[in-house]
Amino acid sequence: MLNFEFKNPTKILFGAGQIAKITAEIPKDAKVLVLYGGGSIKSNGIYEQVTKALADHSYITFGGIPANPEYEVLLEALALIKKEAVTFLLAVGGGSVIDGTKFLSSAALYTGDSPWDILKNGIRTEVGMPFGAVLTLPATGSEMNSGAVITRAATQEKLGMGGPGLFPIFSVLDPTVIQSIPTKQLANGITDAFTHVLEQYMTFPTQALLQDRFAESIMQTLIEVAPRIMANPKDYKAASDFMWSCTMALNGLIQKGVPTDWAVHAIGHELTAAYSIDHARTLAIIAGNHYRYNFEAKKEKLAQYAQRVWNISGEDTDALAHAAIEQTEAFFHSLGIDTKLSQYVSQYEGTAESVQERFIQRGWLGIGEHKTLSPTDVAAIIKMSY
Ligand code: NZQ
Ligand code: ZN
User: Fold this and answer.
1) How far does the centroid of ligand 2 lie from the alpha carbon of residue 249, in Å?
2) Relative to the CA of 150, which ligand 1 atom is closest?
3) What residues contact 337, with CB distance under 8 A and at least 6 apart?
4) For residues 221 and 249, what is the distance between their CA atoms, to the nearest angstrom?
5) ipTM for the predicted complex
6) pTM of the model as a whole
């Protein structure tokens, strides 16, 4: 096991009816800005629960943060924070709203020239404006981690940011919120969380036995509950396991002491930036071919995953590893998720070359667990995924 430090300060309030508890979690003298997305919270009762809980607080609201939180929209919220002297942010939404709130948490206290520099120059946020979250869509794990991904449509960029100052103070995980999530977004959530585990697991054997078991158990749980969630999002028991699995998939725990990959996300983000394909779907497009392309480096772990997660039996490492890749894509297909770029966009020629060029420009010359996956390799994986 590799050396590691682990600290996760986010308080989780899990279960039906927990939104009411935010009253006690936000300082009484805070000036609160409630941030939300396109309005789903207005029709599913979540907004009422939040405003009821804030009845004795001073709060204002900002809606309209789009999926793949857009920098220009967030600048409007930033101006409001400054104008109204806001002191506490409350994200009510999925990964996009929570990530947008993290950006604002950082930007509100940033003293440099342009807040875009936080993303462009990879500035770590040591201290941000305090914020909490009411999660409405299990998927990203943003509710219990310190990372965010922000989009800038004008330049077709989608860049990450983070730092210890960006953990939510608290996050409410109420599994009943998933009742109103469209099937497409449920499929996205399952796929995103599943791929988060893969990114932290599908590397090479390191004898970190417990982390492997943690990762495998999250994937097994997602596989088990996926058909139940897709068939009936009101199944509270399945919704609970789904929600907690998504959080545990990316709250830092399973990545401690092990190498991590994250190439699928690095490539996937480019597909969202270029074509606005849902985040999770870009991962499904890339993951299988990433594992095919890097087969020799990853086959030991692929074979272990085949046996332990998919219960595929056999002695031949190569055969098991190949079966694992097929099974993973079949799982995505079972959720209605396509795994080829051409199934999402008709004009995809040149994507590989343009992503290759961007990675070179950014100096991303070696990604993946060995830091050896070059822009040329990235282009080859994208071409395999057309
Ligand atoms: O905007 P509203 O009207 O709320 O509708 C949203 C949105 O259209 C809807 N939705 C959310 N909760 C709902 C609901 N509809 C009905 N009922 C509910 N309870 O779902 C749509 C998608 O929401 P979004 O927040 O965009 O989805 P998700 O949670 O998948 O977040 C995706 C974003 O997170 C980033 C992605 O890149 C993408 O920008 N990620 C963040 C990560 C992190 N911070 O750790 C890691 C991930 O890998 C990912 O990159
Ligand atoms: Zn993701």
Assistant:
1) 10
2) 39
3) 187, 188, 191, 280, 281, 284
4) 11
5) 0.99
6) 0.98
